Amino acid sequence: MRQWVEKARQGDAEAFAQLMAHCRGMAYAVSYDMLKDVHLAEDAVQEAFLEAYLNLQKLSEPAAFPGWFRTIVVRQCQRTLRRKRHPLLPLDEALQGLQNEPGAADILERKEAEQVLQSSVAALSAKLRVPVQLFYFYGYSLQEISGYLGTPVQTLKKRLHDARQKLKGTLPVADLASVFNLLYEGGGKMLHIVNGDVVGNMLKHGIVQGEVLVWREIYSSGPVFADLSGSRERAERARVLEATLGIPAGEYMTSCEEQERKLREYAQYDEVVLWFEHDLFDQSMLAYLLHWFKGQKLGRTKLSLLCIGEFPGIERFHGLGQLTPAQLGTLSGTWRTIGRPEIELGSELWQAYASPDPTRMADLLDQKNAELAASGLPFASEAFRTHLMRLPSVHNGLGIVEQATFDALASGAHTPLELFRQVTDTLHVLGMGDLEYWKVLRALTAGEHPLLHIEGVEGYTDFRQIPEFLNRRVAATALGQQVQEGAADRVLVQGIDEWYGGLHLQGREVPWRWDTEAEQLVPQLNTQ
Fold it and tell me: Within 13 A of 375's CA, how many CA atoms are on the CB side?
């Protein structure tokens, strides 16, 4: 927007036209909320654009344009209110005209849905009503609305949540989603893609309209490749996941084929909604799907995203699976349409993640941090930067997960269950499950030079077969204590065989480590 403002101030008519197109919906929402008449609102918006154009040189800071323009819109509306008013045109008729959908008035279900929703929204207070209109009716992002209304994003989130709660008093959750779907998608067929069976099962019980596809993958573990559709790549991934996580290779291959067959049917849906969270487990999954969609022709299919990292009333939000059906229902309809910019960014993230060169990810996060933060992928930077921290450190060869394990031991956690809970709570940004953590724990206890000892596990290769494993006592060995103190190096004494996305580290000499203090990758020049 800054570029449009700067060019418009230099007399670029096309740039000002882009500004008008971008801000028209926000201006109209505020104008109609004050004037309650579509014609008067349109006139006020046009007058506001003219006044803004004539006074653009007076705007000292281009970034302040949204709030400055809103002031002009409000002033124009106040002038209109002082004049003689014309008969009012109801908003539902105005929306039909704006949407330009022939025959909509003849569809009884749609008409009733519009009336119910419009009357419910109209009954909200102004501080709730305007954000709802801008966010849902006109599709502006929270950042855009914040700049226009001068209201902090967190406050807007709270107001939208409060508005949804009030609307639920008028409409059941499923009906609310249905009304929005009828209004904006024409009742189109929808596919919801989620990351877990718990969430998937809740969504299937009336929270959303359409079909639900549970995407079963753990891209945060095992080898990943830019193209996972190849038989060789998939077979290698299946082999490693079976060896390290205990997932049967045959079951994994079958599951992949079934879910990707369903994904390839995307064209039969009017909208595909991606439900994901803030952690690496989900962000890597989201990046993969966006990379996949980049290679498709979406045609009439709209791609939408619901991605959250917090929820009102939950102090430590780990994921959508924490929510009750009622809480999950409040998110229905809050997804946002994403376009080529997000799809391109997601594809870049996946290709960097799948690369054997970790500097691709580090450079991408440095170069596009601001772009990611302002996009529909605001959690990607933290998730993938934490991914890089999983690499062995320059200090003692422990990655962030292994280091957190020793820290948890030092703080009083002494069983696998206690360690799992404390480590995953500390590193919730990884979204690590029990299978992934047992793999880490097994590596620390294995070999001729173990760093940890678990009581009574000798002779077992699979922790799941050990009776009362979760409550066995865990302690650091003498060597483990040396590593913890930095007097010995885990990689040098134990060796390593681990995949970090597309990077495979093996042996006692590795090409890359992570410098915790400098927070950057460090190449190891002594490796061959």
Answer: 20
Q: Where are the domains of the chain?
A: 2-81, 104-181, 188-377, 389-523
What pLDDT, in 10s, does the model give residues 285-309? 999 999 999 999 998 899 999 999 9
What is the C-alpha separation between 291 and 298, in angstroms, rounded? 13
Top-level class of domain 104-181: mainly alpha
Name 308's bridge partners: 277
pLDDT band at 171; cut points 50, 70, 90: low
For 330-452, where are the alpha helices, taking DSSP H only? 340-353, 359-367, 369-374, 380-388, 400-410, 416-426, 434-445
Tell me if 317 sits within 8 A of 279, measured CB to CB: no
Nearest in space to 120 (alpha carbons), one of 48, 75, 171, 187: 171
* Average model confidence (pLDDT) across the chain: 84
Question: Two tokens at 110?
Answer: 């749609």
CATH topology of domain 2-81: Rna Polymerase Sigma Factor; Chain: A (1.10.1740)
Check pLDDT > 90 for residue 46. Answer: no
Q: List, in order, residues 6 or more apart from 190 with CB less than 8 Å away.
A: 181, 208, 209, 210, 211, 269, 270, 271, 272, 273
Confidence of residue 98 (pLDDT cuts 50, 70, 90): very low
Q: Which of 115-129, 248-262, 270-284 has the lowest mean pLDDT?
A: 115-129
**Sequential DSSP letters for 334-356:** --EE--HHHHHHHHHHHHHHTSS
- pLDDT per position as a tens digit, 331-351: 887 888 888 999 999 999 999
- Report the number of secondary-structure helices (H) and strands (E) in the chain: 24, 11
Q: State the CATH architecture for 188-377.
A: 3-Layer(aba) Sandwich (3.40)
And the tokens for 437?
A: 């953590």
Nearest to 397 by CA among 329, 484, 317: 484
438 vs 55, higher pLDDT: 438
- Coil, strand or helix at 307: strand
Query: 171: which 2 tokens?
Result: 């409409």
pLDDT at 114: 60
Distance CA 504, CA 21 (A): 48
